[in-house]
Every structure is written in structure tokens, then in C-alpha cells.
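Recap for those who missed Tuesday's class. We walked through two folding examples back to back. For each one, the amino acid string is listed first and its predicted C-alpha cells come directly after. Nothing is annotated here on purpose, so try labeling regions yourself before you check the end of the notes.
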Amino acid sequence: MEERPGSSIGVVGLGAMGLGMAGSLRRAGYQVHVCDVRTQAAEAFAAEGGVACASPAALAAYCEVIVCVVVNAAQTEVVLFGDDGAAAAMKSGSLFVMCSTVDPGWSIALEARLAERGLLYLDAPISGGAARAASGHMTMMTAGRPEAYAKAGAALDAMAAKVYRLGDRAGNGSKVKIINQLLAGVHIAAAAEAMALGLREGVDAAALYEVITHSAGNSWMFENRMAHVLAGDYTPLSAVDIFVKDLGLVLDTARASKFPLPLSATAHQMFMQASTAGFAREDDSAVIKIFPGITLPAKG
């Protein structure tokens, strides 16, 4: 596809989601500049079409729209304000699209910090997993000023099948993502608990999976994550420690208004237990490993 005139766009962070998003933008005709702490990841993307940049500042010299797909607020701070950070190099009126799961209050404050520099901001967390990111079918939960959406143009729709506009100021995108992560974390923990009970009771794991995925007790997380357990494959698509972080954010958000979240608190403890037991960097389905007295399927 021919490049659109003036359509350079930057992507910082080429992990499971960012790489797919950069690929979707490239297929849509954008000239995609990329940056990642793993230089080989950026170079591999550039070899297929695109431009590898050595730093966020170098990327900002070419792009007036930067999509940041790193793990958390701390990494986003480094991208923007660290050595060779993007903020100092971005032209006035440029747009920073923040796709991480973060504290909503931090996101609200970041919008104001960037506005002081003459920069636009979109609070735009993402969901859907690596496969949907790669195909351009993920979900974006966005909030920001009208001029930020205008600057983004068609780029958001190039990356996501569903782009929800949740407010004209930052905050609601991150709040909705926090609620999504509450449900995702609790569903994974509940799925692991159910599968663990079945294994303890001597039920065939594959049969249990078949029945539940065709019954009222099914959930998207059961169907997706328990398939990893059946395969004995804990290669991280989303790691245990992601939910240590995200459910921690959920609880912090609720604690600020003294709102009780008993299921979230229990699920958080389960992921914490899995993390401290040595499974921090395994797939989040590895939370099932905290249950004693069960024999998990071996990797085939």
C-alpha cells in the first residue's frame, strides 16, 4: 500500500501489543517509526518496512503522533521525560497517545503536564490480546480533548476495531480499563480455581474444558487461559505480574473512595502468591500453580 502523504507516526514499545499495532498502522499506509529498548525488535520491524529510531527523542523528530505501548506509568515517564525522552523533542501541537494500564489520576495529571508544553494527549488504554492487536481488531478505551482526536485522524481506527470515546478530558479511558482489568483478573483466578478443583476431583481436564466452554459457567478468560493449562504452555502472553500490577491499581482506585472490592482483593492475593512462588514471568494462567495436590497437564 502506498504511504499517505504526511502520515508518519511513531510507536514506542514493540511488545506483544505494540508490535501488532505498529504492523496495523503499516498496513494502513502509515510510515511507521518505532523505538524499543530491545534494539533488535525495532530493527526487525524496520526490515519489513518502517524506520527504527534509537530513542523516543529521535522518533519525535519525525512524528507528530506518538503511540506509547509500554507496561506502566513508570516506563511512560521514561519515554516522555527520561534521557532522550520524547517530550522535549515533540513539536508544539503534537499528540501523545498513552496505551498503558495506569492509575487514572496519573493519566489526568499527565494531560495537564503535556498541555503546559503545548502537546496534546489521549488517555487510550487497550485490550484484546496480541492476536487482536496484530489483526487490528483490538479495543481502545479513549478519552481526550477534541483537538487530540482530530490530530489522531484515522490512526486509531487503523489499530482497533472498537475505539470508544469516553470523555473530552483524560481519565475515563483509564477508569474503564481499570474496571476491565478487575473483571479479567477475577475471571482468570476463578477459571484457575475451577480447573484446579476439577483436577483434584479426578475429572479429565480436557473433558472439563469441553463441557464448561459449552455451558453457562463459561467465560472468555476460562476458554482462553485454560487452553494454556491444557497445553501445559505457560509462555507469557500476559504475565502473572501484569495482574499483580493491574489488580493493585484496581484496589488503589477503590481504596481512595473507600469502596469495597472483596473479589478483586482475593484475586490479587492469588496472583501475588503465584508471583512470589516463582511464576511472576509466566503466563497469567500459571496462577493455577498455587493450588496444592493437583497434577497439571504436561506440555505436549
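Example two. Treat it independently of the first, because the proteins are unrelated.
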Amino acid sequence: MSKRFYTIARHTVSVEGGTEPDLLALIPGFAEFETGTGAADLQIAFGHDVEIPDTEPNHRFSFDESAFVCRYYATDSAQCFTMTGSDGNCYAMRYNGGDMAEASPVDNPDALRFMLWMAFAMFGSTRNTAPIHSACVVCNGEGTIFLGESGTGKSTHARLWLKNIDGCRLLNDDSPIITVENGKPMIYGSPWSGKTHCYHNEGYPLQAIVRLHQADMNHIEPLGTLRAVAAIEPSLPPALRYNVGLETYRIDFIASIIQNCRVFSLGCRPDSEAAELCSKVVMGR
């Protein structure tokens, strides 16, 4: 059994198995987060027979342009996840809490990458840590994330910031990680950045969250507490969003974020004016 170690959003993760650690070394993004040996906060062990609950999943969705059908299960004793490919091959993982997740053998790099994302999300669900579906830019040492449904224009709006706002750069284009540390929200880069190869093992204070929707005119408004919760929740991972047993954790986590971070709604066109308006409000320029 081989093993590799990674530091992701200040958590040390070990990955062990027969061929999985070597396969992981070939996947873009993970090399930037690899460390030497150490004590792992989360151990992900492949090569196991994984027991999956004989119940309906809490959530079912497709991944990688429907190449996989994914199922997430939450019970009183465990969180489980499966990925079934178009060829009928099924990969499975079980997290019982604590520092250990066990998974079946995985020989598909796309499946391996996403299985690790799910394991990290399960682990983080009670630790004020969550990968969030968004694009993130950093300006003046602070992060701003853009939320929205797929196709809304998160990546497009982030690129408009890069093009039009001085001193701005991309931290992650698909799944940065929010943490709450000493009551303050932080945003970290991650090994998961969609189709854009943008992998930075860095963290910054989170200054603003902006939920996008397409509109004929550019306009932005701050959100009150209830609307801010509604803006953030859909972008959280299944391990938080669809686990009834973690409802208190989810509410407390979102509350900790919005108490120290402004949340906005941005109706926008895909133009430079939208980026200039948003940055002016968010950063007070």
C-alpha cells in the first residue's frame, strides 16, 4: 500500500491504496498541495469493501456531463457516496466520522478526483469547512467569491474582474474552500478547480460573497440575513446541504460566515461595467 499526504485548507489529508496514490499524482492540481509525511486529520483509504445503506439516497445527481450517476446517503451512523459510470462500474465510499473514510478501489482519474472532494466535504461538514461551488478572486489580500447556478456566468464574471480590476487574480474557478477560523471566514484555494487549471495553496480573509443572476441591466444590492442564507446554501456540498442530521451545523456555519462577511445579489450582463460596478461596491472603490 502506498500513501501520499496533502495539506488542503490547513487540514492534512492522507490518501492510501494500491494504485490510487500513484494515479492521484497524475491528476492536475494535487501536486501543489502535496506535503511529506505527517499526522493526518483525514485518512482516505482505498481498496475496501464498502457497505452502502439499503435505502433511497438523500441526493442523486450526475457528474462529468452525466458520465457518472452519483448518490449521497446520510444515516445516523455514516455518510456514504457512490458513483456509477455509464459502463456500470460503481465506486463507493463510507465516512463514519472522525478521521477515516474508506473507499472501494478506484481506477478512473475523474472518479478518484471527485471521490476525494466528497470525502473532504464529509470530513469538513462538522469542522466549519466546506468546498463551495463558486469562482474566487483575490484583490488587496482579500477574497471575493461568485456564486450561481451552472451557466450563470461565475467564471465569466471572474475573468472580467481579472481583465478590468487592477491587482486582481484568480484563486480558484470552481471549488474554493470556506472555513471559519476564530469566528472569521477565510477562503482557500483547492485541488479542485473545474476546467480551469488554477491551483493555489493559499488562504485569505473572505470579504464578500456575490450571488449572480443574468439581467438586462447591471445592478447590485446587499442581502439581509434570510436572503443571504438562501444565497449561500445552494452552493454548499451535499454533505451539508442534504444531511438532515447536520442541520444545526449548517445553520451555525452559514451564520458564522454572514456575521463577518457581506453578501450581495448581482444582476449582470457579461461586460466590463458589471465587474466595475461589483468591485466598486464590494471594495468601496
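Answers for example two:
The mean pLDDT is 95.
The chain is about 25% helix and 35% strand.
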